[in-house]
Amino acid sequence: MKQQDGEEAAAKRAKRSSGAAGEDRLSALPDDVLVLILLCLRTIEAAWTSVLARRWRGIWGLLPELRLAFFPELRGFGDALAASSVPLHCLFVAGRRGAPAASVSDWLPAAAPRVASELTIVDIGRERSANGGGGGEEAEESGVIELPCFEKATSIWFHFHLRSVGLSLPPAGVFARLTDLYLSGVWFIGACDLGEAVSSARCPCLQKLTLQDAWELHNLVIHSDSLKVVVLMKLRGLQQLTVMAPALEELSVMQSFVCDQTQQPVAIASISAPQLKLLMWVDVYDPSSVHLGEMEQLKSLSTIFAVYGLEMLNDACLMFMSCVKVIESLTLTLGYMQEINDYQYLMEDLTILPEITSQHLIPRTNGHSFGACSFHVLRICPGIKQLIMDLSERFIMEGQADECPPGCICGQPPNWKTEELTLNCLHEVEIQEFRGSEHELDFVKRLFSWATALKRMAVTFDCSVSKSMVKELSQVFRAFSRSEICMEFYVYHKKVKVLYASED
C-alpha cells in the first residue's frame, strides 16, 4: 500500500512539473508587472524580449527610460516609440560613428510627444576630413537632423564630436518646458534662426544655453527673460552677438569671433545683462565694438593671459581687465605653449589687476615651471584673502611632453625664488590636482613664506599620485607649514574626492 501511494504521489509531481514547463505564466502577468521586470535589464536586452512571444512585442516600448548605448541598428525604433504614449523621462541614444544623421530624423518625430524630461543624442557623424575641418558639403553628405518641437522635454543635449552633422531647427512650435539646451559639433542649416528658436516666445523656461564647436552661426541674437547661464565656445565664424537677458547671471564667450581676410578680429557684441554675476571672456575684445553694458552685480571675472609669445596675444585680455576696477574674484588662466625658448616673456606687460579678494590661478604649463608667472601675479594683488591654484593639465594633448626640456627658459626670471613678498591678508589657500613635481614643491615652499597670516591650506592630490607618495607629500607639506595653519589633504577614491586619513 505504501509503495502504491508513493507511486501516485510521484506521478502527480511529474504531471505538475510537465504542466509548468509548458505554461507561459510570465506572459499572463499585467503590463505594469512586465515593465518592472524589463527595468532590471539594459534597454537593448529589453528590446530582445520581443522575440519571446507575441505578448512581449510591445512591452519594452512602455519603459519610462530608454538608453541605447551604441545600438547598432535603429530600424523600427520609430515604430516602437509611436506604439506607446507612456511618457519618457529619459531617451539616450549613442549612434555608431558613420551612421547617417538622417536615421535620427526618422524617429525623432515619434519621440517628440513622448519625451517628458531628458533627450540626449551623441556621436553621430562621419570621420573628419583630411584637412581637419568640415564644410557645408561634408555636412550634407552625413545628413541633416531635422529637430521637431519637443513641447514636454526639459533637457535636450546633442553632442557630436566630428562637426559634420547638419541641424535644422523647427520653424514653429513652443518648447514649453525646456530649461537646458546643449548643442555641440553641429552645422546650423535651414531658415530658422537659433536666436529666434531660443527666445522667450518659443522657450519661455530656458535657463541654460550651451553652444560649442558650432558652425554657420554668424549673427546670434538672443532675447530671453528666463536665461540664467549662456556658454558660447568655439562658434567658428561668429561676427555679431546680441544678448538681451535681464535674468542672466553667467556668461562665457570663448574663441568664437572670426578674423577677416587680413586676420584682423571681427567682433561686434552688445550685452545687456544687469544681473550678471560671472563673466568669462576669452576672445577678441575692442571696447569700441564690444559693449558689455552696466554690470553692477558682477562678482567674478575670468580670462586668459599668454605667458610667452607675441604681445598681440594679450592685447584683448589687458583691455578687457582694464574695464573692471573692483571685483570679488578673478580667475586667470596662465597659458604656455609647448615650445617657448624662441618667444618673449610677456608677464611684465601685466602691470595691474582689478582690486580683488579671491584669486583663482590656473597655470596651463605644458610641463613648464609656473613659479615666475604666479609670483608676478601675486605681487600685483597683495591684498587677496583667498588663493586657489588649479594645477590640473586637462588640455595636454596625446603625445605632448609633460616636462620641459633641459635648458628651458621657463624658470626665468629667477628672482621669484629669492625676492621677498608679503601676503599678509592671505588666510586661505586651496591647491587642486597636486602631483608633487619639483616645480610645484618649489612654489609651495615659497608660498608658505609669503603668506605670513595663513590660517588654512587644503591640498587635493591628483588621482595619478600613488598612496605612498600621498603620504610622503603630506609630510613634506607639514614640514613647510606652521603650527597655526590648519592643513587638510584630499585624495580621490573611486573618482570621488575624500578627506585623506594618514596612517600615522
TrEMBL record:
Coiled-coil region: none
Superkingdom field: Eukaryota
Pfam families linked: LRR_At5g56370 (PF24758)
Domain (F-box/LRR-repeat protein 15/At3g58940/PEG3-like LRR): residue spans on this chain: 168-283
Protein name: F-box/LRR-repeat protein 15/At3g58940/PEG3-like LRR domain-containing protein
Organism listed in the record: Urochloa decumbens
